[in-house]
Amino acid sequence: MPLKVLTYNVNGIRAALAKELVDFLDKENPDIVCFQEIKALSSQFDASVFERHGYYCYWFSAQKLGYSGVGILSKKAANHIEYGVGDELADFEGRVIRADFETFSVISAYFPSGTAGDHRQIVKYNFLDLFSRHINQLKTKIPNLIICGDYNICHEAIDIHDPKGNKDSSGFLPEEREWMSAFFKSGFIDTFRHLNKEAPNHYTWWSYRANARQNNKGWRIDYISVNKELADSIIDAKILPNDIHSDHCASYVILSI
Fold first, then answer.
1. Of 150, 159, 190, 222, which is the active-site residue?
2. Is 88 exposed, middle or buried (0-12, 13-18, 19+ CB in 10 A)?
3. Which of 9, 171, 185, 190 stands the most exposed, by the fewest C-beta atoms within 10 Å?
4. What is the reported pLDDT for 116?
5. 110 Cβ contact list (under 8 Å, min separation 6)
6. % pLDDT > 90, the chain
7. CA-to-CA distance for 101 and 103, rounded, in angstroms?
8. pTM for this structure?
9. Is 243 a known active-site residue?
10. What is the homologous superfamily of the domain 3-255 according to CATH?
């Protein structure tokens, strides 16, 4: 039976709920939802609204209020939930949650941004190294991994509206792009690009400034990656820019898993 997995940086789950997020989920009907940047403790919003629509809910909030945080919704109860990656800063900021099922695991990850300055760029590079080590360890014991999230990196020039103008911008720096290349070479597939190899102008984030979204001057920084053994299981992968609850948009993959 096909499995539909949707990922969405909601940039504040309370604000997204006020913009009919639940109606959007009803329309798309994903089996699993990965949220990033929920910006709330689970006690600060009504999670039961998701439960009433058939989802088990798992949240990993940042300890800093109104900041970061990730979550996973699933129509089937997970066998196990892993909160964090065992790193003090990443776990303080609520960066990673994993749900294990019988034959696969799903990760919702919110990678740090480096746009706030050199210090946060260093935090970002440290997280990339940490995440690589973490995933390499997981691969030895979990056969099928679905890694959803806001990676805060555009991999190729096709993934950003102005590659020349942004060549020195955090999110499109050579070191970040090299990390993405190494990540995919290590045994993972960018599911959207796997089915849409030459399709330009498909983005998942737009600045709130200068009518960027209306003019589609965006960045594709949100991904659903799967291990290469699942390549033949990828049925469909789409980005959903017309449903607006955030400065990001949702995307999904359908797998025969």
1. 150
2. exposed
3. 185
4. 87
5. 9, 36, 37, 68, 69, 70, 94, 95, 96, 149, 150
6. 98
7. 6
8. 0.97
9. no
10. Endonuclease/exonuclease/phosphatase (3.60.10.10)
